[in-house]
Amino acid sequence: MKITRVEATPLYIELKIDILDINKTNGLSVVLVEVETDEGHLGHGITAIMDEDVVASAVNDLAGPTIIGENPMANERIWEKLYWQLTPRGQTGYGGHAIAAIDVALWDIKGKVLGEPVWRLLGGARPTVPLYATFGFGFFDRDQIGEAAKLWRENGFDRLKMTVGMNALKRRDDERRPLLEAIREDRIRVRNVREAAGEEAELFVDANCSLDQYHAIMLANWIEEYDIAFFEEPITHNNVRQMAEMRTRTKVPVAAGQTETLAYRFRDFITAGAVDVLQPNVVIGGGYTQIQKVAGMAHAFNMPIDNGGAFPFHNMHLHAGVMNGGMVEYHHVSVECCKAFFKGLPEPKDGWLDLPETPGLGFEPDMDAVRELAKAPKSMGQGKG
Ligand SMILES: [Mg+2]
Predict the structure, then answer these.
(1) Average of pLDDT values for 235-262?
(2) Average pLDDT score over residue span 23-38
(3) Cα atoms found within 13 Å of the Cα of residue 149, Cβ hemisphere only
(4) How many separate domains does the chain show?
(5) What distance in angstroms lies between residue 256's CA and the mean position of ligand 1's atoms?
């Protein structure tokens, strides 16, 4: 069997937010990769949280032509080839995103050829995965975010994540003292969410790398009284030394890893004691081929893994597959984004997601919807997740 075609489509998916009468739009950048074989198999992978045009170009102009003619079942061989082409000196970043999208498509093909869902090829540890809901976005004001927490509780989620930090470092050139003001507002927002969600709910916060160490520690200590189960990406560029030090200065557990594209970064997180929870993401961190190795490292070091960086329908296969799988992130904006161009996605029940028995990923892109979405304006480097 041979790969005959590799095609990436850059997408910027703009979504209308229809919660609590909020009339806002939010968008996500995604690259969809389609891989075809000479035996007629089609596999689909995605990547996200990057500029969609750059990564699509890396796939269409570089990586795709390199792997034409390769056997799609040889995912280790192909991964190695792409590593030396796109990230030969261990560079993390966009090259890793391109590898991830291709690798996910290869596993989709592998499942279809073997007649098994991807989660079973990864080990088949359990047929259902626990979810946490990412609901608490910056587009809610401090009162709305409490109302939203109640709404998600009513929808069966007792594990809830909200954003903090509000892009404070990114905004500091245009605004005075945005970090202190951002975390003061966060303290109120977290309190409102805890009061609305009730004491049984598990709460998580995520700063998306938008704070410095000083403000991240200050915020962690302020919100410790609200029983925070982890503080995700608290510090800019996931600084290993500063996160390790942060862990000695707060009781709130630290989590990171969703935007890391090479395995050695996870090794550094582990050996430096930088995090309590590792958060590899299959659509960012090199696909299933690399992330199952990260899961293996986590297992050896007895560290939990949970999904950060969203895209639950791809990450559920990892957490159901490996024995030390953890929670999957049911991120509202990312779920709605996937619903815009995938058919056959599973629906959560009581905070859990059942894995499909269908070979491969178990869902397919709606290529008519993809072609329509591809005509929309791109993010011009503003795509986010
Ligand atoms: Mg995150």
Answers:
(1) 97
(2) 94
(3) 30
(4) 2
(5) 8
